[in-house]
Every structure is written in structure tokens, then in C-alpha cells.
Fold this sequence. Notes:
Number of domains: 1
CATH topology: TIM Barrel
Oligomer: single chain
Strand order of the largest sheet: 1-2-4-5-6-7-8-9
Bound molecules: SN-glycerol-3-phosphate, magnesium ion
Amino acid sequence: MIRTLNIAHRGFSGMYPENTMEAFKKAVEIGSDGIETDLHITKDGVIVICHDETIDRTTDGSGFIKDYTYRELTEFNAGHGEKIPSLDELMDYMKDKNLLLNLELKNDVIPYENLERSTIDKIYEYGLKKNVIVSSFNHNSMQKVKKYDSSIKTGLLYGSPIHNPGEYAKRIGADALHPLFSLVMDKATINDIKRNGILINVYTVNEKSYMKKLIDLGVDGIITNYPNLLKDVIEKLTDK
Ligand code: G3P
Ligand code: MG
């Protein structure tokens, strides 16, 4: 029995415009176990979904999200005629599905003042506490989340090596580590993290050979642009 969770990175972003409702719905339709997505705050305090701090790369507009109102942002095309979604739209879609929702707070470049508090309020509003894991490259922010509510699950993102990651995560009170997958490709590292009681969700794994290796190593979740490929890999390993 393979228990590795299949988490769609920015939705099914390998085939549909990233971080759009289309990409989220396609991920759910093909049977992903969860969705990873990225959060920012508009000028008028609305949490919206986009990877970058600006809308230049992913829409037909330009400029910083923090300088637009939500209403203004909805005028832009995020691909296939899709709009930049609000967190409300995604949560409304997810609220009756028992799937994982990984909300990455994009507060490592712009320190959006109320992103933690506002995200937690949305989690309560939609009754999604048991489904959500909040993550960030900003580990101070994850400690702030725990101060507001210690029962909200948190994950520490990192893209370069850290010393004793399992012990570190435990010490600062996180539930999970979310490493760049190449940083945990050995059994000793995985075992060390698990010994500390910390979950491991790796990003971003788009090749089947790496998916197989990471499943074999026993990671808890794989974040991928191609949940269809990961589904294939899991099904084939299950058939054996
Ligand atoms: O949460 C995993 C992954 O999304 C972190 O990196 O830059 O794709 O948001 P990024
Ligand atoms: Mg992300």
C-alpha cells in the first residue's frame, strides 16, 4: 500500500495555466490527493492566488499584486481566459472535498503584514482546518501561525541544505518539512527527519524516476506539476 500523497503544484500546472481555478479543478478531476498554491494580499486586503509578487509572467497585465485592488486584478487574463482567483474561490470549491490544501504564504519577499492572520481566518470560515497545511520559506511566519493557533499544521520550505533539518523543524514547532526534493534523496536524511516525528513533502518532482525513488524512500507527499504522471507511478507500483 503506497501512502505517498499526490499534491498538484499550483494545480495541474504542467498542462493548464498555473494557479487558476481551471488548473485546480483538473487536478481534482484526475484524482490528486491535494493542491499546493501560493498566496499574496491585494491593496484592499484580499488574499489572492499567484506565484510571483507581480502579475507580469502569468497574466496579460503587469505590476505588483500589493498595488492593485482585487477588483482591478480580476480584469487580467491568467491564461485560457481565467482570472486570478481569490482564496475564497478556491476554498469554496475545496470545502466539501476531503482533500489536502497546502497554502504557501508568499511572504519571504514582501512581508505582507496580515497574511498569517487573514489566512487563518479563512481556514476557520470554510471549516478546512483538518485539510490545510500552511507553508512558507519564511520560517518566522510559520512560528507566527503556531502562536495564533498551535493546531494549524505548518511546513517549512527550503531550497538549500540546512543542518539537522528534522531536529530544526521540531525545535521551532513545525509539523512538516517541504524541501526541494534533491535535498532529501538519501535514506539517512529521511530517517533522521522521521525520527523527529516530522512529515516530509517534497517539491517539485516532475520525472517518474525521481517520483519512484522518493516513494521508495518513504516521503509523505510529492508536490508535482504532473499529478497524472505521479498517479501512473503510484498505480504501477501498487499493481506489482
Ligand atoms: O510549495 C512548494 C513549492 O511551490 C515552493 O516553491 O517557488 O514553486 O512556490 P515555489
Ligand atoms: Mg509554491
